[in-house]
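Researcher: Go.
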Amino acid sequence: MELLANRILNDMPQRPEDKCEFYSTDSIAFFKAYDVFPGPAEFDKYEFVIPSSAFPVLYVDKREFYVEKNTLMPVNPGQSHGARSHYSVPCYIPIFIDKSLVNQVASQIFNISEAFFENGTYRISPHLINSINQFMYESKHKQLGYEFVLDSLTTQIIISILRQTDSNLPAYKLDNHYRDTNCVKRVMEFLRENYNKKYSFETVAQIANYSPYHFIKIFKAETGKTPHEYLIDVKIEKAIEQLGSKEGSITEVCFSCGFNSLNHFTGVFKKKTGLTPTEFKKSFFK
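Model: Structure:
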C-alpha cells in the first residue's frame, strides 16, 4: 500500500522547498521538517506537532497556541491550522496518524468511537521519545521483521499519546478501593520538587498517610506506576530538559538529577529514551 507520508505530501497546500526526511508506514508518518507554512491547512488525519526549538505561534480553528520545544500539540482531523506566515525553523516533527487507526485503538481501550483531543501543549514522556526513536531506527534500517516492529511501535505511540493528552476519552477505570487522588497528588508534587534529594520510601509513605504496602497499591492504581517508577521518570524528564538546554556536562546532569553514578544514569536513560545521554545530545530532541 502507499505510504501515508506520500499521501500527506500530495495533500499539502504548499510543498516543502527542500525534500524533508520522513519515516512512514501506510497508517503513520513522521517528518523531520524545517518549514512551517501559513494556514489554513486541513487533513483528514490526526496530527501531532513536536518542535525541537523555538516555534512560531500556531493557529488552530482561529485560536492561538504557543508550542514550546519538546512538547506535543495535537490537531484533530478537519481542524484548520497553520502559522501566521512562512517560517523556517531548525527542525520539528509533525506526526500524522490515520484517523481510523487512532479510533480503532480508542474504541478497543475506551469504547469510544471517535477520539477528540483538546488542543494545547503536553509534556512528552521518556517512553514516547523512546518509541519515536525506535520507529525511526526500524524504518530507516529495515532489518528482518521490521514491519511487525513498526506495527507494534505504532500502537504504543498511539496509546502513549492517548495517555498524555486531554481528550474526550474517559479516565482510567480504577478500583475505587485503591483511589485517593489527593494523597497521590501530594506525593507526586513532593517527588517532582525533591527528585534530586535523598529520602526513604517510608518518608514518602508518611506524606501520603498510609502504610508503605497500601500506599504502593494506591499510587499504582492512580498513576499506573509504582512511586519508584514515577520518580525515575521525573529524573529522566529533568535530565532531558538539562541536556536539551546544553547547560553542564553529562556528568553534571547525572548528579544534579539525583543519580549516584554515571554508569547507572546512562543505563537508565538509554532504557527510557532509547538513546545514551551522548546520543541524545546529538538527536532531534536535543
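Model: The beta strands are 21-24, 28-36, 46-51, 58-60, 63-65, 71-75, 81-83, 87-97, 122-123.
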